[in-house]
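WARN  no MSA supplied for this record, continuing single-sequence
INFO  ligand: FE2/S2 (inorganic) cluster
INFO  echoing inputs
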Amino acid sequence: MSNNSIKVRTNGPLLCTGEIELYAADGTLLEKSDDLVLCRCGHSQNKPFCDGSHRTVAFEDSGEFQDAKSEPIAGEGALKITVRTNGMLVAQGPMSLLCADGGVGGTRNKAALCRCGHSANKPFCDLSHKAQAFTD
Ligand code: FES
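INFO  complex generated
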């Protein structure tokens, strides 16, 4: 079973651990790491990374969720996360999605995750970034 996981922090970022590869929208590899902290409030000055701005903007989200689209993990390998221009984080590869309390909210092989802070279905993207004219 894969050890990749994305943990959704209460009122805070996404903690990505395991074999993580971070890519720009054009496919450029930005970082390979076993531990990345990615912004999901939309306010970091160092996107896609969290810089602590979620505290100053008083971002609120419980970090508790149930993934209605949870699926069995297929295979092993890296979790590739692509930062879409003005949009979501697209995570591809075997992963567990963890709630803030550490419980498993779901398992996936692909997930679109909110990074603008406005989704009504956090941690997943619901395309609110378009209505909010999120830019990055
Ligand atoms: S979640 Fe930390 S700066 Fe956005």
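The domain at 5-131 is CATH 3.40.5.90 (Ribosomal Protein L9; domain 1).
INFO  checksum written, moving to next record
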